[in-house]
Design goal:
8-stranded parallel beta barrel; binds 3-methyl-2-oxobutanoic acid; single chain; 12 helices
């Protein structure tokens, strides 16, 4: 009698495909453009490992940001400054493997960590190449006008770029803390930088802790660069939250712009689904509650 074939099922978490691959189109830049054109909000969550990435994919999250916020939520650091390129590559690889295991479709963004793109476009290219080889579809970098040359350099070489303005955590010490950016005079600089980044070819722009009215105006002014807000109100093209915060996995008080989507849900999958639903139908964020 023949032995039964081995199943290779792992006892440490199961990752079956969320749905047959044929019914799910991979998220790509053209698909993100289509979503924007029809006014569909883009959903983004951070994830740092295979299982959470697979669950986010199954929940219908459009884009996963492997953020350098992993310095705080995974490594116990007090800021993102200590995160290295090797750390980022490790986590991007883990996330991408998780998505591949479930034949997922999510767009993956790898964050360029502190000090890996600041010297020159060439240095940025080497760092971006490492993240792309780890499996990212796009890289994200923080900063205003001084990054435009680098963004153009990467985009010309075929690397999709997400910019990041407003509260940029890698420069938290220079900014004097985690506080709202783009109020008063500084709105003019932020607006100028956002336009320059779009002109340089950035196709996404995270706006963090930026007044809701300014973010909504910028979104109108940037047709080819999709604004993704975090603490930036509901007028952006999409939203992002740090996964641990939106699941209530912390001991302190969440920032004002976070909703705990685990409340009232029985599973992480359902909490992520609730987040996707709330962003898509416009019920999250609520400007009066989550924005400035
Ligand atoms: O690193 C990160 O997770 C981020 C988000 C907070 C936007 O940059």
């Amino acid at each position: 009698m023949m032995d039964k074939p081995e199943t290779h099922a792992s006892p440490y978490g199961t990752l079956p495909p969320a749905s047959p691959p044929a019914s799910r189109k991979p998220v790509s830049l053209p698909r993100l453009n289509e979503m924007r054109a029809r006014g569909e909000k883009i959903t983004m969550l951070t994830a740092y490992d295979a299982t959470f990435a697979a669950v986010a994919d199954a929940a219908g999250v459009d884009s996963i940001l492997v953020g350098d916020s992993l310095g705080m939520v995974c490594q116990g650091l007090t800021s993102t400054v200590g995160v290295t390129l090797a750390d980022m590559c490790y986590h991007v690889q883990s996330v991408v493997r998780g998505i591949q295991r479930v034949q997922g479709t999510t767009w993956v963004i790898g964050d360029m960590p502190y000090g890996t793109y600041h010297e020159s476009p060439e240095q940025a290219m080497r760092s971006a190449a490492a993240l792309m080889q780890a499996g990212a579809h796009m890289v994200k970098l923080e900063g205003g006008g001084w990054t435009t040359e680098t963004v153009r350099f990467l985009v010309e070489r075929g690397i999709p770029v997400c910019a990041h303005l407003g509260l940029t955590p890698q420069t938290v010490h220079a900014l004097g803390g985690y506080r709202v950016q783009g109020r008063g005079e500084s709105a003019t600089v932020l607006r100028r930088d956002a336009r320059a980044l779009q002109d340089a070819g950035a196709t996404m722009l995270v706006l963090e802790m930026v007044p809701a009215a300014l973010s909504a105006e910028l979104t109108q002014e940037l047709p080819t660069c999709h604004t993704i807000g975090i603490g930036a109100g509901n007028g952006t093209a999409g939203q992002v939250l740090v996964m641990h915060d939106m699941l209530g996995i912390n001991l302190g008080k969440n920032p004002k712009f976070v909703r705990n989507f685990m409340q009232g849900q029985g599973s992480v999958l359902d909490a992520m689904r609730a987040y996707v639903q709330a962003v898509k139908d416009g019920s999250f964020p609520v400007n009066a509650e989550h924005a400035w």
